[in-house]
Design a protein that fits this description.
Number of helices: 2
Helix content: 10-25%
Oligomer: single chain
Radius of gyration: 12 Å
Shape: globular
Strand order of the largest sheet: 1-4
Strand content: 15-25%
Distance between the termini: 18 Å
Number of strands: 4
CATH architecture: 2-Layer Sandwich
CATH class: Alpha Beta
Number of domains: 1
Largest sheet: 2 strands, antiparallel
Order of helices and strands: EHEEHE
Structural class: alpha+beta
Length: 75
C-alpha cells in the first residue's frame, strides 16, 4: 500500500457541509460524515485513503476556509 503525499484537516467549527470539497477532489478522498454534529450538519471528512496528493482544490473551493492542506515533500 502506498503512503499518502497529502493530508487535509477540516475545521469542524467552520464546515457547513456544503459538499463543494467533495465535488472538487479529483481523488475522491472526501465524503460527508454519516452522522450530524450538534448543529445538525453532516460535516465533510477525509476518507482513510492514501490517494490524497495535496492538490489543494478542496481548500481553494471551500467558501468557509475550513480546510488546511499539508503536503509531504517526496524526494
Amino acid at each position: 500500500m502506498s503512503e499518502s503525499r497529502g493530508k487535509i484537516i477540516i475545521d469542524v467549527e467552520r464546515c457547513k457541509g456544503c459538499g463543494l470539497c467533495i465535488i472538487a477532489c479529483p481523488k475522491k478522498c472526501i465524503r460527508l460524515s454519516g452522522q450530524a454534529d450538534l448543529r445538525g450538519i453532516r460535516l465533510a471528512k477525509l476518507i482513510d485513503n492514501p490517494d490524497c496528493n495535496g492538490c489543494t482544490l478542496c481548500a481553494i473551493i471551500c467558501p468557509d476556509v475550513a480546510i488546511d492542506v499539508y503536503k509531504k515533500i517526496v524526494k
